[in-house]
Inverse folding.
């Protein structure tokens, strides 16, 4: 019951002890990720789509600005749609273009061990140490993914790095009146609209391009400030599925 929650996981990231001199992590691969879900945290959302782009640090070393947004040539990519087994909120359905009906009609399975095997296999083939990267990742994507993994009784390696580009860029890209929403950052760096916002893959492309605008600084920031997966509190804990 509740004991497991309070014993195993810190309740919020704010309650974590601040480690003044955490060991520097020389991350070899950065895995950009975005999740589409049935709603916002207060809806206790379920996962409906995930996308991961894995990029070795070799392909992140040079900042491409100024210029047209350009992705590295070498990227491993994984995009999966899953049946969330929970109704979408109207807003989530509207912005993502996903619905319970279209996911069911396309015969998508739920978040099961099959998805987990693919996800783990994808991460295992990347050169480590790995750092997951998500925009507002500490507030949304990492806790939600950990809750989904917990539901099927599994987890990622606790030492996996977790970089949230939202606080990182608030520190690294200071400019009066600036918005740090992902689309706004993309417009700030590239002077154009991001494409396919609120599709998991579209948001990962936007995130990777935003990262590339500030890549050396963000990699240094990650080495000092990345959290580890083991200290991410799941967004919520619900009974584990029994299948
Ligand atoms: N979301 C939502 N309402 C919003 C913004 C987001 O319900 N106004 C939920 C549904 C999205 C998920 O959060 O699938 C992830 O958001 P994003 O597409 O920005 O990654
Ligand atoms: Mg997102
Ligand atoms: Mg998204």
């Amino acid at each position: 019951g509740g004991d497991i929650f309070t014993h195993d996981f810190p309740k919020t990231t704010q309650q974590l002890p601040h480690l003044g001199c955490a060991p520097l992590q020389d991350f070899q691969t950065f895995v950009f990720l975005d999740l589409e879900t049935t709603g916002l945290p207060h809806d206790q959302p379920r996962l409906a789509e995930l996308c991961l782009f894995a990029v070795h640090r070799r392909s992140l070393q040079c900042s491409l600005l100024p210029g047209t947004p350009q992705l590295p040539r070498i990227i491993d990519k994984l995009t999966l749609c899953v049946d969330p087994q929970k109704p979408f909120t109207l807003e989530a359905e509207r912005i993502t273009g996903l619905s319970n009906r279209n996911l069911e009609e396309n015969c998508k399975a739920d978040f099961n061990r099959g998805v987990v095997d693919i996800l783990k296999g994808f991460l295992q083939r990347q050169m480590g140490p790995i750092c997951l990267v998500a925009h507002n990742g500490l507030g949304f994507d990492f806790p939600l993914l950990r809750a989904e993994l917990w539901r099927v009784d599994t987890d990622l390696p606790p030492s996996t790095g977790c970089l949230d580009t939202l606080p990182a860029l608030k520190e690294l890209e200071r400019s009066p009146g600036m918005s740090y929403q992902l689309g706004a950052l993309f417009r700030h760096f590239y002077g154009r609209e991001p494409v396919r916002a609120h599709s998991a893959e579209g948001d990962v492309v936007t995130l990777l391009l935003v990262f590339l605008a500030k890549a050396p600084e963000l990699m240094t920031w990650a080495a000092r400030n990345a959290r580890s997966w083991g200290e991410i509190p799941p967004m919520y804990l619900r009974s584990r599925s029994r299948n």
Remarks:
- The mean pLDDT is 90.
- The pocket of magnesium ion (ligand 2) is lined by residues 34, 135, 203 (CB under 6 Å).
- The longest strand covers residues 47-56.
- The two ends are 20 Å apart (CA to CA).
